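testing teh design pipeline on a random one, pls ignore if ur not involved
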């Protein structure tokens, strides 16, 4: 069965889903997006994802031609039309069709694309044994050049990091910022644990992850751990007791080695596994797909 893709109010089979080659999203990566997950008939943190989508659009002066409530209904309708209870949903807002010039004023109306399909956890069977990560030479864009809170269609910085990590034989990349501090993975936020305290970088240099916020809340409010948002270096990463990454696609994934240094005892750590278990409990809450009003 072919997936149905929503484009500007109409549905198309995925092979026939198209936008103009003059769309600024295609030409320049000029647009924003969100990745969202649905579990067992409920969309997890849907409102939070929509809020972040509209914040990203506002930051680049991109007018989304739908109210938030309308966007939510279209997302749920797309999932229903594809008859999915468990899904990964990609919501894309491009600047729209314009001319070949870089000036976005030629783009008269933004385009909205919604894709919903089945997609398993990003790292397959590595959640049980843990990921082997490598640091990469590519640096996270300076926040002075590109604010990381904007989830834009231009992901080349992240893609280059992913390419380098694969060349080096890693399961995932760890990106440093321009000051040499740890920033994030190729598409995830990063956490370390040392002496029972959980650390994660400030979001000055990485995306304000929704899974990141969920894990911080679980750690502090459900499990009673101290979480500190502060920058840390390669030394703190290499000598951590536990390391894990979080993201909508990745969920919560343990890292058991970095650049050949074994983290802890080389297996997913105790606190990381607690957080994974609690995360599996909270994803059962969300916006109902089939009886939403």
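output:
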């Amino acid at each position: 069965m072919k997936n149905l893709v929503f484009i500007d109010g109409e549905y198309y089979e995925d092979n026939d889903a198209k936008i103009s080659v003059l769309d600024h999203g295609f030409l320049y990566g000029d647009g924003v997006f969100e990745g969202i997950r649905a579990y067992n008939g409920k969309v997890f943190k849907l409102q939070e994802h929509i809020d972040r989508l509209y914040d990203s659009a506002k930051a680049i002066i991109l007018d989304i031609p739908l109210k938030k409530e309308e966007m939510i209904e279209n997302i749920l309708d797309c999932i229903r039309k594809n008859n999915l209870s468990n899904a990964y949903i990609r919501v894309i807002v491009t600047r729209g069709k314009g001319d070949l010039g870089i000036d976005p004023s030629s783009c008269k109306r933004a385009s909205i694309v919604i894709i919903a399909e089945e997609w398993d956890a990003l790292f397959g069977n590595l959640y049980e044994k843990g990921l082997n990560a490598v640091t990469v030479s590519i640096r996270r864009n300076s926040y002075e050049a590109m604010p990381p809170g904007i989830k834009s269609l231009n992901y080349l910085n992240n893609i280059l990091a992913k390419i380098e990590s694969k060349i080096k034989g890693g399961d995932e990349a760890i990106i440093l910022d321009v000051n040499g501090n740890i920033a994030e993975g190729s598409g995830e936020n990063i956490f370390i644990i040392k002496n029972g305290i959980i650390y994660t970088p400030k979001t000055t240099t990485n995306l304000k992850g929704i899974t990141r916020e969920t894990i911080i809340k679980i750690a502090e409010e459900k499990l009673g751990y101290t979480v500190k948002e502060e920058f840390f270096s390669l030394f703190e990463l290499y000598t951590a007791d536990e390391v894990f990454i979080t993201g909508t696609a990745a969920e919560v994934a343990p890292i058991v080695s970095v650049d050949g240094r074994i983290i802890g005892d080389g297996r997913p750590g105790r606190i990381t596994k607690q957080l994974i278990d609690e995360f599996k409990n909270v994803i059962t809450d969300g916006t109902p797909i089939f009886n939403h009003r």
